[in-house]
Design a protein that fits this description.
This protein has ten helices and eight strands. The chain is α/β, with parallel strands linked by helices.
């Protein structure tokens, strides 16, 4: 039997519907076919969405799952009245009961990013992303005092994706530095980082996994050899211990888990949600 089809319908970008829906679907050990229908912001578009959902139901012989975050009641009613899918209206499920409990009407704002031009948080997030890109892989030493966190570790241990996640998801200015043979010879962290020790967090990784990752980038090179990976990881971990910085292994952790641990340990003053 084909993988169940899941629709994510929103009158905005659909990011909220997808994030929430995927978190729920992750509880089930099966694959789903995802169909995104963003910007369904008119009755006509709602009818088009209904036709697509119902056609899928007929072809597959079972109800698709439909996650919605629709603010416009007319648009939502078209979906509710016409679609033959299993409808999960997240605003109806969570926002309306909260309105009743709090005694306050919600903003009923279409889309998380509908007023970005006026949002200081949005501009702070963009600034954090630009900072993290500029300070990726030790490219720039300048302005490190304004960083929220500085990640260190051997090449390909997960520093760049973690830095970008922290910037994009939480608006943190995250720099990252690779630990290289010259650092191991000096037996200390890169000199530019020493004044900012409280902001430093280390990432390590099992040598076997590191070798696999590096071989995808540079097959059969000394850089990717298991022997070299073992040496680098051992030197990096020893350096982190000597420096007294916090660190964790990324081998079996997702970016989200890594970032959450860093936030708990570093506890930056500024966070955006």
């Amino acid at each position: 039997m084909a993988n169940p089809t899941v629709f994510f319908i929103s009158d905005g970008t659909g990011i909220t519907a997808e994030t929430f829906g995927n978190a729920i679907l992750a509880q089930f050990e099966m694959k789903f076919r995802h169909i995104r229908l963003p910007f369904v912001d008119s009755v006509d578009k709602a009818h088009q969405a209904v036709r697509q959902i119902n056609h899928t139901a007929e072809v597959e012989g079972r109800r698709p799952i439909v996650f919605t975050t629709l603010v416009n009641t007319e648009v939502l009613e078209v979906i509710q009245d016409g679609c033959k899918g299993m409808l999960l209206d997240m605003f109806g499920t969570f926002v309306h009961p909260l309105e009743h409990e709090l005694g306050v009407k919600s903003n009923h704002r279409i889309g998380r990013f509908s007023d970005v031009s006026k949002s200081k948080e949005y501009h702070d997030r963009i600034e954090a992303i630009n900072f993290s890109l500029a300070h990726d892989d030790g490219q720039l030493n300048r302005d490190l005092e304004s960083s929220d966190v500085i990640l260190v570790g051997v090449s390909r241990s997960g520093k760049t994706p973690t830095s970008l996640y922290l910037a994009m998801q939480h608006g943190l200015k995250a720099a990252n530095y690779p630990l290289i043979p010259e650092d191991f010879e000096r037996r200390q962290l890169p000199p530019a980082l020493l004044p900012h020790k409280k902001k430093i967090f280390g990432l390590t990784i099992q040598p076997e996994r590191l070798s696999e990752i590096r071989n995808e980038r540079r097959p059969n090179s000394k850089y990717a050899s298991l022997e070299n990976c073992r040496q680098e990881v051992s030197e990096a971990e020893a350096m982190m211990r000597r420096a007294g910085i916090r660190w964790l292994s990324t081998t079996h952790k997702s970016i989200e888990e890594i970032a959450t641990t860093i936030l708990q340990e570093i506890n930056p003053e500024r966070l955006i949600y």
